[in-house]
Amino acid sequence: MSANKVYLLDGGTLVIDGYHAFWNRGPGGELRFPCYAILIDHPDGLYIFDTGYDHAHVERVLPFEKPLQTEAQTIPGQLATVGLRPSDINYVINSHYHFDHCGGNIHLTEACTLCHAKELEACASPHPFEMLGYSDVRFSPDISAKRGAPAEPALDIYTPKFETLTNDQEIAKGMWLFETPGHTAGHYSLMVELPDRRPMLFSADACYSKQNMDLMCISSFHLDPVASLQSMERLKELAEKYDAELFYSHDPASYPDYLLAPAFYS
Ligand SMILES: [Zn+2]
Predict the structure, then answer these.
(1) Residue 50, Cβ density class (10 Å: 0-12 exposed, 13-18 middle, ≥19 buried)
(2) Ligand 1 center–CA 98 separation, angstroms
(3) How far is CA 185 from CA 99, 130, 206, 222, in A?
(4) How many angstroms does the Cα of residue 131 sit away from the middle of ligand 1?
(5) What confidence tens digit (pLDDT) does each residue in 52-87 have?
(6) Alpha-carbon span 165 to 114, nearest angstrom
(7) Domains defined along the chain, listed by start
(8) Which of 10, 50, 100, 205 is catalytic?
(9) pLDDT the model gives residue 5
(10) Has 17 been annotated as catalytic?
(11) d(CA 179, CA 161)
């Protein structure tokens, strides 16, 4: 049996410059964009794909991204809207480990974490230009210690289990992780099949927005721009092959049309 329901959990907004959202193209100026997590209710368990950002972390480390996030837009707040507690979640999947995709992991203390093996390596030893992207590594006390992050009380109770993957994987019936590197070393996009609609293909940061896709313009936060472009091509091909609907990670124009929890896709 494939997944029963997919919920999009709103996580608030951040700001970047237009030249970062559309690399070497712009236009420049503040661009406010949404962040969200994806909750999948599957017969094998409850999965969350990406967990948004932690407001306190962004205020402390990247205040220039001007985070706007209410209590209701945190992972515990969003799960409450669908009658769940963080401890109910069985699996966390991280597309990659930039701070705006893993900030809520620390709440999901009972979950097993799935990610690409290369991504876990990359965030433990980032390149100098990736330091801010990989600034919130509290999801792993081991990596926090290796990176020399100050000890945080919350981590004493948090000992996550990791399962690392490589290649494309069907992690549960009708739930596919597709390798889409370039933005980061071990980036995964996710496709979820549902009984009564087209499959949902979540690009994550392999493509921020429909406009990025239409222009074939990558964002400036990347490890490898050529691989990023190839991953965007791959997403287009996957969408065509599976007749899947693309959902973008940070798309201010498309986001108002997305159904947000407690509403769901099924
Ligand atoms: Zn992102």
Answers:
(1) buried
(2) 7
(3) 15, 11, 11, 9
(4) 14
(5) 999 999 999 999 999 999 999 999 999 999 999 999
(6) 7
(7) 5-257 (3.60.15.10)
(8) 100
(9) 98
(10) no
(11) 22
